[in-house]
Amino acid sequence: MWSSGSSTVKSLPLKKRLCFLLKLVCLVISVLIFCEFLIYLMVIFQCQWPEVKGGAHTGEKETSSSVLKAMILADTHLLGEIKGHWLDKLRREWQMERSFQTALWLLQPDIVFILGDVFDEGKWSLPKAWEDDVRRFRKMFKSPVSTELVVVVGNHDIGFHYEMTTYKVNRFEKVFNFTSGKLITRKGINFVLVNSVAMEGDGCALCRTAEAKLAALSHKLNCSQQKPNHSNQRCRDVEKLPASEPILLQHYPLYRKSDAECSGEDAAPPEEKNIPFKEKYDVLSREASQKLLWWFHPRLILSGHTHSACEVLHAGKIPEISVPSFSWRNRNNPSFIMGSITPTDFSLQKCFLPYESRVFAIYCAAGALLVTLTLAHCQLLTPPLYFAQRLISKRKAV
User: Within 162-276, where are the H helices?
Assistant: First the structure.
């Protein structure tokens, strides 16, 4: 059988063999272009910025110039030299780069927030490895001048509290211009950046500094929200900020017992939902959470860390959105949040990225097709019709 097939292949004209080979190459290239470029374009093209009203009690829509378009993602976990296999790094970083750059091109956000754990091994990285990680990050997440990039620190960037050092914090701050208790105001909207790793509450030097900055910022924001004729001596010499209630941006979520109440296709798996969270490890402590709520009275909290989606209400009125991981290494269905925000209102919409399982299925189907076409071309695969005809002729002969 095999010798017959080999002679058949050799008997094919060279022109036909080259033509068939060219068709196979075109098919392979087409599948690669679709799975590595076009699929990101097709999926993200379906995402639209949510509409936001002018205020809580008005029915009028804001004009596009008054709405801040914010893109929020979390937990990119760029692999390092210790645990990151080169092929895994290459694949995951390509996926994130293509998704991010496609989203910037299609959606054109005003600002992008990354909620910590930018790196997977920042807590361990030596200077040379750190510089390499930063270089790769800047390539993957480069943005045009029209889009501002703001990065919040996470535990994998500087270590958990017991691993956190002044050196690690300073090098992160130097690269990303981040400080805990930093206020960013855009279009009259106040964003407060929190180093949640430093909210341990044990009085460590870095913790004291971070909490002091947050407390001072809280005072400034509270004074700014008071009416002009309000007589308060403590606010007399305080620099006034926009009166908009702030939005908190941090890596750790505020305290919650577990993800048991979380729902949606990108929530934690059923077997993980009821596992109790550990304070100061999975979520902030009750005390630290109450401090932040009391200091800032935020209208929205955005956090990461859990790699899964969740929406909870604190004090019955303050929503917190846990943003899932942006990396396919952590999820089959990564996503990011699109937020249309004004000083008085906001509207959020989730944008899913391509499912990795579907991309893998496309590659498997294409591979099976290539094998089938090759076998058929080499006449090593019996055509179904010919096989059926032989069966029918045998039955007639009987």
Answer: 166-176, 205-224, 270-273
Burial class (CB in 10 A: 0-12, 13-18, 19+), 228: exposed
Helix residue ranges per DSSP H, 225-317: 270-273, 286-296
Measured between alpha carbons, how far is 306 from 269 in angstroms, rounded to an integer? 12
For the chain, domain boundaries? 30-54+67-226+236-358
Question: What tokens were used for 204?
Answer: 């460590």
Element (H, E) at 309: none
- Choice among 55-59, 99-103, 207-211 with the minimum mean pLDDT: 55-59
> Strand pairing of 182-186 and 189-193?
antiparallel
304 touches 116 (CB < 8 A): yes
Of 83 and 325, the one with more pLDDT: 325
* pLDDT tens-digit series, residues 251-301: 999 999 999 999 999 999 999 999 999 999 999 999 999 999 999 999 999
- With contact defined as beta carbons under 8 Å apart, do 268 and 306 qualify? yes
CA distance 330 to 272: 14
Q: What percent of the chain has pLDDT over 70?
A: 88
Rg for the chain (alpha carbons), in Å?
28
Confidence (pLDDT) at 6? 47
- Please determine, looking at this structure, whether the domain spanning 30-54+67-226+236-358 carries the CATH number 3.60.21.10: yes
Ranking 151-160, 212-221, 263-272, 369-378 by mean pLDDT, the lowest is 369-378
Q: Please state, in angstroms and rounded to a whole number, the distance separating the CA atoms of residues 348 and 355.
A: 21
The angle at the Cα of 135, spanning 132 to 44, to the nearest 5 degrees, equals: 125
Q: pLDDT (tens digit, 9 = 90+) per residue, 78-93?
A: 999 888 889 999 999 9
Query: What is the layout of strands, in order, in the sheet containing 148-152?
Result: 148-152, 111-115, 68-73, 335-341, 346-352
**CB neighbour list of residue 171: distance below 8 Å, 6 or more residues apart:** 130
